[in-house]
Fold this protein.
Amino acid sequence: MNLPANQALIDDVQFLDIQVPEAGQLTEVSDGIFWLRMPLPFDLDHINLYLIKDFEFGGYALIDTGIGIRKTQEIWDELLASLDKPISKVIVTHMHPDHIGMAGYLVEKYKVPFYMSHSEYFVARALSAGSRGASDWQDDEYLQRCGFSESYRNNAKENRKTSKGVGQVIKPIPLQYIRLQANDTIDIGAEEWQVMIGRGHSPEHVCLFNKQQNILISGDHVLPIISPNIGVYSTEPDANSLQQYLTTLPQFKSLPSNCLVLPSHKQPFYGLHTRVDELLAHHQAHLQSLREFCTERKTVKECLPVLFKRELNPHNMFFAIAEALSHLNYLYYEKELSREVNESGHFGYKII
């Protein structure tokens, strides 16, 4: 490993000097804590999961589960057959399919407790259930408000008709859960993990800190190299997700600067305080770019090239729209931008 655990101060982000595990393989990153990587069928092609020795409770505690598709299940079945002990509890940081997708399968297989925060559990249940026949006019209005043409919206509507929804990549969610709340502690083996809650990327994202080993499992709330998606979607178009993220991110600087961070994507790293500052600065830079761009009234669509310098495929466009809207909503609620609806039904934003 590239840094001693007792180093007093970490001034920059440094990755753990350890081999990245192949899909379905375990790599020990600290005493009794194992890094497991599962593939994803997206541009971001992997998720990190963590198994922690929980032998006092009969096996391994699992943090996050992978997306609920056949390939993931096959990898899980092969891995589980090789483990010396079973899964003892399943903990899910938040409701996105790559995190909760296989939870139902594993909880059902081992009949073990399932842990989530309240908001994440019920949002996951709602999204996996689908529209249940409800009209999708709000989805169309969302894209219209963001400045997209009728042709684009009609194409999106056709795609929604053929899409099977996120429920197709989430195994049936257990009907019982144990609620995790801020400042709770959860026992895993002989050690305690403190619950910390982040918001913005998802409603009530669980992070776990182990004081004994000085380790933070950060989920998607604190990532190296890339920034978590902070979006506003059609389900809550007036949300102020960025305000929630910027408010809940600084608390992690109360943890030791030399703690080892185990994120859901990319590699484990040191330099938590630096990374928090980088993420805060990243969003402040986006906000400043929008302030400078919106001297004349602009739509969300017109703001996209200001925030994203690469070409956006349809999958990435979905998240880019939501990210741009979260920044514009933030400035609107801060009373830095005005917002008006033009004759085409588009929101237009302009600096006040």
Q: What stands out?
A: The longest strand covers residues 46-54.
